[in-house]
Automatic annotation (TrEMBL):
It comes from Dichotomicrobium thermohalophilum. It catalyses: a 4-saturated-(3S)-3-hydroxyacyl-CoA = a (3E)-enoyl-CoA + H2O; a (3S)-3-hydroxyacyl-CoA = a (2E)-enoyl-CoA + H2O. This is enoyl-CoA hydratase. GO terms for biological process: fatty acid beta-oxidation. Transmembrane segments: none annotated. Keywords: Fatty acid metabolism, Lipid metabolism, Lyase. Its EC number is 4.2.1.17.
């Protein structure tokens, strides 16, 4: 498959997607989001891929939706065509997706990173929802996922003022899982993805599903669903292998990868 706005590579069992519109700091446009969806579809259906990494450039993960493409849009068409309605493909990916963020992750760029399962950031990362400065509000989950990640006070301040968070503040607030030294970000994201791809895939997918349930369900419903998933994993050969390997003091060789 050929792509114009992204670069797609396989690194062993890891699928790597690099956002690549350097002339506009990786501003997200319709073409890029369609290509991102196609790349995710391809990795999702490829049995050999166990985890996906999305990254941008040193300077920008993505500086938001493409303002120049958006600026002439009018309400009836945005509503009728459900503008950006298909930009949330990442959230429907069942394999884990890691965002490796260096530089700007603003507006839709911050929202795209938050759609991933977790964010690794370089010390240069800057997260923000500057839509308010353009006379609009976040449209792809910024007011929701940011609030879940960092709490109401910080999310509200960022959405009302457009203030950015640097990597350290984002890590303290729980938006990013770890800061990785500049220059090593993508390789560390790939190493982390390899580690995940080496686990039992049904367990990985159920862990992802269950953690995501914490944002959607009550504690009672979430823990009950978690327990059912936990029970079901005792039907897998990988549970037998994982526990036998522990008892025999060796590394597990999971079958369902
Ligand atoms: N859209 C289009 N072009 C952009 C964007 C953007 N979001 N961001 C940067 N560019 C372009 C600039 O216009 C410039 O192009 P040119 O060289 O032709 O003038 C080039 O990229 C380089 O940018 P700057 O010269 O501005 O670089 P600076 O280092 O001076 O500044 C900034 C970097 C601070 C990132 C600045 O470019 C900026 O403020 N960008 C806009 C950030 C923004 O407001 N983002 C929010 C956009 S709205 C949005 O995302 C709605 C979300 C919708 C849902 C998305 C679903 C996933």
């Amino acid at each position: 498959m050929t792509y114009e706005t992204i670069i797609v590579e396989k690194r062993g069992r890891v699928g790597l997607i690099v956002l690549n519109r350097p002339e506009s700091l990786n501003a997200l446009n319709e073409a890029m989001m369609v290509e991102l969806g196609r790349a995710l579809d391809a990795f999702e259906s490829e049995a050999n891929i166990g985890c996906i990494v999305i990254t941008g450039s040193e300077r920008a993960f993505a500086a938001g939706a493409d303002i120049k493409e958006m600026q002439g849009k009018v309400f009836p068409a945005t509503y009728r065509d459900d503008f950006i309605g298909n930009w949330d493909r990442v959230t429907r990916t069942r394999k884990p997706v890691i965002a490796a963020v260096s530089g700007y992750a603003l507006g839709g760029g911050c929202e795209l990173a938050m759609m991933c399962d977790f964010i690794l950031a370089s010390p240069t990362a800057k997260f923000g929802q500057p839509e308010i400065t353009l006379g609009i509000i976040p449209g792809a989950g910024g007011t929701q996922r940011l609030t879940h990640a960092v709490g109401k006070a910080k999310a509200m301040e960022m959405c009302l003022t457009g203030r950015n968070m640097d990597a350290e503040e984002a890590e303290r607030a729980g938006l990013v899982s770890r800061i990785v030294a500049s220059g090593d970000l993508v390789e560390e994201a790939i190493r982390t993805a390899e580690k995940i791809a080496d686990m039992s895939m049904p367990a990985v997918m159920m862990a992802k599903e269950s953690v995501n349930n914490a944002q959607e369900m009550s504690l009672t419903a979430g823990t009950r669903t978690e327990r059912r998933l936990f029970h079901s994993l005792f039907a897998t050969a990988d549970q037998k292998e994982g526990m036998a390997a522990f008892a025999e003091k060796r590394s597990p060789q999971f079958k369902h990868k």
